[in-house]
Design brief:
4-stranded antiparallel sheet, 12 strands, Umud Fragment, subunit A, alpha+beta
Length: 188
Amino acid sequence: MLKKILAFTWELVKVVVISLVIIIPVRYFLIQPFYVKGASMEPNFEDHQYLIIDELSFRFHNPARGDVIVFRYPKDPQEYFIKRVIGLPGEKVEVKDGQVFVYNQEFKDGVALEETYLPADLKTFANTGTESVKLGPNEFYVMGDNRNSSKDSRSFGPVDRSFIIGRVMFRGWPLNKITVFQTPSYQY
């Protein structure tokens, strides 16, 4: 009887150790769960949704315009934010006349972003005010999709690359809204 208990315990220990060897690297180096708090990304991401963040791909390339990212809040790195990348390193981002304009090598005179992920009735109302920011070599300009309820680069400035944790890859909760996310393409 004691021999069976020891054999069972040994098998259990092996299963736990093997599981930890697999799970820990995946959790800390590849993907990470993230829980949405607040309304800054509505209607695309809502309060209490559960997301999976891809931490690996940004080790090989920079975020792209339109990526939804999770990053450490520059003014308090203990807090995590979720926002959409609008401006890339070296670009100039300007918010004026209800639109977001990007100036870069390809568009020296600027181009208005066609933000198809925003509801049509919110596009111009959401981008009120005027702002112009020139981004440094490692800086990204981020904005929430719910522009009127978002603390983003308009209030705390650009986000340094070192603060970015990863890209939103998958929504797992609620079950009726399970989604795999791709970077949107922009029509200029």
